[in-house]
Amino acid sequence: MTTPRKLHIKSYGCQMNVYDAQRMVDTLAPEGFVETASAEDADLVILNTCHIREKASEKVYSELGRLRTAKDEAARNGREMRIAVAGCVAQAEGSEIIRRAPVVDVVVGPQSYHHLPQLLAKAKIDGRAIETEFPIEDKFAALPDPKPAVIRARGISSFVTVQEGCDKFCTFCVVPYTRGMEVSRPVARIIDDVKRLADNGVREITLIGQNVNAFHGEGDDGKPWSLGKLLYRLADIRGIVRLRYSTSHPRDVDDALIEAHRDIPAVMPFVHLPVQSGSDRILEAMNRKHTAADYARTVERFRKVREDIAFSSDFIVGFPGETEEDFLATLALVRQIGYAGAYSFKYSPRPGTPAADMRETVTTGLDKTAVMDERLARLQDLIDSQQAAFNKAAIGKTVDVLFERAARNPGQIVGRTAYLQPAHVVASPDIIGQVLPVTIDSLERYSLIGKLAGHTPIAASRSQPAMTTGA
Ligand code: 5AD
Ligand code: SF4
Predict the structure, then answer these.
(1) Mutate which of 163, 211, 287, 347 to test ligand 2's pocket (most atoms within 8 Å of Cβ)?
(2) May I ask the CATH class of domain 398-452?
(3) pLDDT band for position 364 (50/70/90)?
């Protein structure tokens, strides 16, 4: 028997990359690779990269600098270390990566992970291998299962890709260029994945896609199904108690999705709905194809069918031409909606996107950085205060928690509320995988601390969970 080879994957960026990393692990397992936590003793290191903002992109090159030392050290010890760059930087920069960082053996774009074994073999012969082509258009349907390679269940909660790519072409965004045009997976394949995961102990599924509510996968009736229709079908699968989806575009919220929230208890009342800006002028320059009022109306449609629904969002500050007045419109929209949390970013020009060529109309140079920092701080303060108020409002309430794993503190089990807040209780590991009511006593930073409703806590000593998802 050959000794297993060690694989280390470092993922940056979005949930899709986390999922893709798991797929790469599962694709390479039959080749004898097992995961290791340290890059230094790995035989293969994969950097699964993100290109969304310049900072994310540049991280790759500093990491490759560190890996060069590790690779040299391995070579001195007579061991070969291979280095692969995957993800969106691989897609966007291709062979430029090998030119800039000769330490890299393989460059592989997000549509080609199923070819990793062949690419590694090619690199062994040719010294390097690159694959960043987008396959034929309907990659999910026409190819012999290129993408799904259904991932192994890894605990209670799992991602399932339902679509990939985006046709929206927001002017700041690289996704349509790195992940390609929007493609949906056929419903039957998604159902198979979810059934298999449920049979292996998964209780919560998050459907993921760059523009998940543009989903239009082919159903068993031969017609395209909407995300709402898919949610109804998945809710019937035995063992699945919670359904989520991310990330949605406000323009693609249809009645079926709203009805799914109204009718299906398993569909969690927490929606990530990025708006990016509250200024109509900026929204137009961003090519978002909706106004701030359209967005607020969409939020109201959800709230009308589920009053306990909460929202999170993404914001960009300092988009080209953003004035103080535009920025104040963003703050006003945040106040109007009231978020449970949100991510905010400084605008980062991305090569090849239309916004990268837009002329600044207000601030330039150093001044601009200072203005952006200041706006980001103001926006984050407002979002933080909304998030803190949202979390505080849980104290004293009894809320449903899906328990996932043993917590770091011995005897404690941690799970998540409907709003993804971590919640800790002292309890037996037997509760892992169950949804139970918890009375929340206090808040420690972002974690809720409570007691199982109607239970007296057991001694805080049993620490081995029945099933774990890692740290
Ligand atoms: N600059 C800053 N933030 C960006 N995002 C996408 N592209 C850029 C960019 N060029 C943000 C958006 C998006 C999130 C995933 O990243 O807010 O919703
Ligand atoms: Fe990028 Fe989202 Fe806009 Fe698509 S909808 S281009 S992924 S920001």
Answers:
(1) 211
(2) mainly beta
(3) low
| pLDDT one-digit tens code per residue, 149-182 | 456 778 999 999 999 999 999 999 999 999 988 9
Examine domains 147-268 and 272-392 and report if their fold is the same.
yes
Domain 5-135, what fold?
Answer: Rossmann fold (3.40.50)
pLDDT tens-place string over residues 301-314: 999 999 999 999 99
The ligand placed nearest to the CA atom of residue 172 is 1
**pLDDT at position 280 over 90:** yes
The residues near 101 (Cβ < 8 Å, ≥ 6 apart) are: 61, 64, 65, 68, 85
Q: At residue 362, does pLDDT exceed 80?
A: no
Check pLDDT > 70 for residue 117.
yes
pLDDT at site 461: 36
Q: Residue ranges of the domains in the chain?
A: 5-135, 147-268, 272-392, 398-452
Architecture of domain 147-268: 2-Layer Sandwich (3.30)
Residue 163 phi, psi (nearest 5)? -150, 165
Pick the CATH number of 272-392 from 3.10.150.10, 3.30.1330.10, 3.30.750.200, 3.90.25.10: 3.30.750.200
How many A from CA of 319 to the centre of ligand 1?
10
Pocket of ligand 2 (CB under 6 A): 166, 168-170, 173, 175-176, 210-211, 249
